[in-house]
Amino acid sequence: MTQIDPAETFRLEAQDVLEQLEQTLLDLGDDLDDMALVDGAFRALHTIKGSGAMFGFTEVADFVHEFETAFDRLRKGDAAPSGELVRVALGAKDHIARLIAEPNAHARAGVPILDRLRAIVGTGIQAEAPPRPVDAATPGNGPAAGDASHGWRIRFRLPEDALSLGASPALLLDELRELGDCTVLASAEDLPSLEKLDPEICHLSWDVTLLSDCSRDAVEDVFLFVEDGMQLDIAPLPAAGPRSDAAAPAGPSDPAAPPAGKTDRAGAPPRENSSLRVAAERLDELLDRVGELVIAQARLSQIAAESSNPSLMTVTEEIERLSAGLRDTTMGIRMVPIGTLFGRFRRLVHDLSAELGKDVDFVTSGEQTELDKTVIESLADPLVHVIRNAIDHGLESPEARAKAGKPRQGSVRLSAAHEGAEVAITVSDDGAGLDTDRIRRKAEASGLIASDATLSDSELHRLIFHPGFSTAQEVSAISGRGVGMDVVSRTMDALRGRIDVDSQRGRGATVTLRLPLTLAIIDGMMVRVGRNRYSIPLSAVEECVELPPDIAEGSRGRNFLRIRDKLVPFLRLRELFGTQEPEDLHQKVVIVSTGEQRVGLVVDQILGNTQTVIKSLSRLHADVETFAGATIMGDGTVALILDVANLVRSGQRFETRLRDEQTKGQAA
Amino acid sequence: MTQHARDIDAVPAGEAMRALTLDVGGEVFAIEATSVREILDMVPVTEVPNAPAFVAGLINVRGRVVPLADLRVKFGMEHRPPDDDTRIVVFEITLEEEPTVVGMLADRVHTVCDIALSTMEPAPKVGMRWRPEFVRGIAKHDGNFIIVPEMNRVFSTEGAGTANSENETRAG
């Protein structure tokens, strides 16, 4: 067992609670009348205060106490929630995060925040929040079922090492007392004889009868930070008597046999998410090992196939199945719903709409879509840029919108969905759309394109991802610094993803980021060029055709294939790679694509499909752009993985050149 | 390992350097023994098209993809096909502050010995066939001259990129 710093546990848990608080506050901002949200925020604050004090974060506890007092007034109806309050409360939430991250550094910064809070809800410095008054129980109060009872019978026993980890039974009992009138009985029946007594171990258990109309959640929250390994049994008090005699209640929680009645936390009502925190590096390590296993298994399969030993082949197939299952499970562990990321943007939009004076309706969908955790982390920055752009450049001011006959409130939609082996993340707005004329002028002015170049709208749209490109006429603090969209483009390249832009003047723009599901293992198509083998990511392969002999022999300058009435440029990999060996008689063309762009790759032979564990190339090969990485094949040799995006770009350059020649030819 | 690798060029004076000696292109080279991970027999090498000639290949070292370097390119020596004595020395260097495992071709690997640093002389500024920044010093051991290369500089990506074309022509 690794010893975990209790303060670190608090930090992690508090981070979760704070995120939840932020979401609750933002929800409250959308619906100021929802008292259940006020209650939710109050509970979150209460949890942070209690555990903060328990783990020695007194600054946090002091600050949150005042914060909580303000929300208590809201709960009681002494003050009404307002947009201003939500804004200040969000600031206060950020301050709590700072206090937790760097204790003893920010305490003073909290004073003005609290002053504003007090001004809004009209509190003086108040003493302890009184126990919940009955009249606060609005219908929306308390999300948990089973609130009908008049109180709770709580039996708990702390884990043996709780005291040495800093938990304090007295504080827990104090918190319970805050919820209502408590009768506390300590049980010493597990107390060992004196010679066996270890003063650091908690031998006592408690039996608390709590008279309160609070929800089960409120009681559970008291134990939030010590729940691992503790025994906790919460049962509703029968509605009849105010103070139940031990023998009176019947039913599931028979108090006649307290030791037998112990319920492990696992047996308690199921929490929505029973989960485990694991360091990301450990998962990476696991995935590396699984990757090695997949390679070793491929070698075994090859040997077994050569041996024609039936029992060896049976075992090999079994192992193949097992390792495939293990691989899928391991990948599954790394998959995280993208909703964790979306949550952060609500705050961004909230702040931006206040700053820019634009009313924004921000709608997210597809939060359950799962993606590799590392991918999600690296998506945060690009999405910030795209959303900022949508709000800053895309959406017009409310006045301009009204003039254009649109609703004053602009709308930005963020959605995620699986599309085959890819995930598509879409940001769409109903703003002015991209101004292709302005993009064109700007691109010509900065020398990105020639003044007579023929570019389609979608090619013009793509220019916004060019480094150093920005059409914002004024440089603002939010966007328009000319950096940003090219960062998006770079990140997507690194993630082997791509960007599509779709825009209609006056109707809005849609930016779609497409990403592979995972970064670690891909299906690849093995091809041979000369005596070298290369892997092409299968997700990019559209089809394979034979290179027509007339084209194969024809002029080297016209590298185009006609496939179903469309011209597809192709690259001879052997020319690109400087292959010395003579070429095969019947050359094949593998058509690969990214989005709408396609390019054919001429190879000597197509060898088949394999699972490919991607290994990145060292810095010594950072200059070699045609390869995305390398992989180890079944026979133990190394094969390079082609960088399709890069190859398509080179193919695209061919195409542009040809089209320019054609246009000039027609003009002449 | 990492620590040692970082120290490859920083052995205090007055001490001995424990070094692995090997032949490349008819000269004896010495590399810090503590940075060496293993010595392999020749394995299949995958060529990387359009890569610098100095690191034109990749090999599989226990499930890792490792670049294979040929010192001959940097030292302007003639290419020679591998034979029974050819070995691959796998060692760790620091590239842009990141420890990186690389393989290096050796015509023959001799032994691990202690080289007294007092016998090591700085590379002469004139009259040497090699670029002086690649050579940390020339040591004497058992009556032979041993070249102690400045590995981190030999492998630095600037040198591995286009800047080594001069050497490649000399090698050709």
TrEMBL record, chain A:
Residues 521-653 form the CheW-like domain. Transmembrane segments: none annotated. Its EC number is 2.7.13.3. PROSITE patterns: CHEW, HIS_KIN, HPT. GO terms for molecular function: ATP binding; phosphorelay sensor kinase activity. Pfam families: CheW, H-kinase_dim, HATPase_c, Hpt. GO terms for cellular component: cytoplasm. The keyword Nucleus does not apply. CDD domains: CheA_reg (cd00731), HATPase_CheA-like (cd16916), HPT (cd00088). It is an enzyme of class 2 (transferase). Residues 278-519 form the Histidine kinase domain. Keywords: ATP-binding, Chemotaxis, Kinase, Nucleotide-binding, Phosphoprotein, Transferase, Two-component regulatory system. The modification Phosphohistidine is found at H46. Residues 1-103 form the HPt domain. PANTHER family: CHEMOTAXIS PROTEIN CHEA, SENSOR HISTIDINE KINASE CHEA. Involved in the transmission of sensory signals from the chemoreceptors to the flagellar motors. CheA is autophosphorylated; it can transfer its phosphate group to either CheB or CheY. This is Chemotaxis protein CheA. It comes from Rhodosalinus halophilus. The lineage of its organism: Bacteria, Pseudomonadati, Pseudomonadota, Alphaproteobacteria, Rhodobacterales.
